[in-house]
Amino acid sequence: MLQSETGFRLLKGHLDRAAQAALVEAVLARVDRSPLFTPAMPRTGRKMSVRMTNFGPLGWVTDKDRGYRYQAAHPVTGEAWPNLPQALFDLWEAVSGWPDPPEACLVNWYGPGARLGQHIDADEDAKFAPVVSVSLGDSAKFRLGGPTPKGPTTSLTLDSGDVVVLAGPARRFRHGVDRIYPGTSTLLPPGWRPGRINLTLRRVTKGQAGQAGDRGTQPA
Ligand SMILES: O=C(O)CCC(=O)C(=O)O
Ligand SMILES: [Fe+2]
């Protein structure tokens, strides 16, 4: 486990193979009802290479006209998002140190050529609540920068079962996924592999901790 004063934590192999498989099963059952969609960049409408869906009361979406936002309904089906698997509430409780439960689980599916550009997670009102993310399936090259648009970055390999926590200052650190390494995991069923699923858990609305003050409650 890597831990640093920045609030970035990489919990290597936090989920064992059985926990990963159970999570994949929970994800696939929900994706049946809440299919992956292709998000598009604000203004340009350029399609992203990662496909997405969400679980929980709120989901992160983006399109040409309305940009980045959270909403309660799937942009294609208009249905409410499926509920959050219990295992993800448990994970949040175990690693986030945040008193309010997560409200959104963004499901990112990376096919062999997919990547995610450098960005800062900044669309949440709960600005200080950690972001917790899980890697499932093929390994990925994850690149972490700092709080500014430029400056040095560090590359890390995220393998299936790894959990990343962005808390404290690192909550506002730039990051992205440069590539996946196709065929490095047998976790996902045929039809989904080669590929990688990332589950990103976020608190969106301020909740109790966020109401407590501008800085919110310090995570335990
Ligand atoms: O796929 C990942 O590991 C990172 C995903 C991410 O940064 C995001 O969804 O905001
Ligand atoms: Fe992110």
Describe what is shown at a glance:
The protein is of the alpha+beta class and 220 residues long. It has helices at residues 17-33, 86-95, 207-211; strands spanning 2-3, 8-11, 51-55, 59-61, 69-71, 104-110, 116-119, 131-137, 139-144, 154-158, 163-166, 175-181, 196-202.
Q: How would you describe this structure to a colleague?
A:
By secondary structure, this protein is an alpha+beta fold. It has one domain (2-211): Alpha-ketoglutarate-dependent dioxygenase AlkB-like (Jelly Rolls, Sandwich). Helices cover 15% and strands 29% of the residues. It is built from three helices and 13 strands; from the N terminus they run E-E-H-E-E-E-H-E-E-E-E-E-E-E-E-H. It has helices spanning 17-33, 86-95, 207-211, and strands at 2-3, 8-11, 51-55, 59-61, 69-71, 104-110, 116-119, 131-137, 139-144, 154-158, 163-166, 175-181, 196-202. It has a seven-stranded antiparallel β-sheet with strand order 1-2-11-8-13-6-3, with helices on one face. A four-stranded antiparallel β-sheet has the order 7-12-9-10, with no helix packed on it. The chain has a two-stranded antiparallel sheet with strand order 4-5. The chain is globular. It starts with a strand and ends in a 9-residue tail after the last helix. The structure holds 2-oxoglutaric acid and fe (ii) ion. Residues 101-205 form the Fe2OG dioxygenase domain. GO terms for molecular function: broad specificity oxidative DNA demethylase activity; ferrous iron binding; oxidative RNA demethylase activity. This is Alpha-ketoglutarate-dependent dioxygenase AlkB.
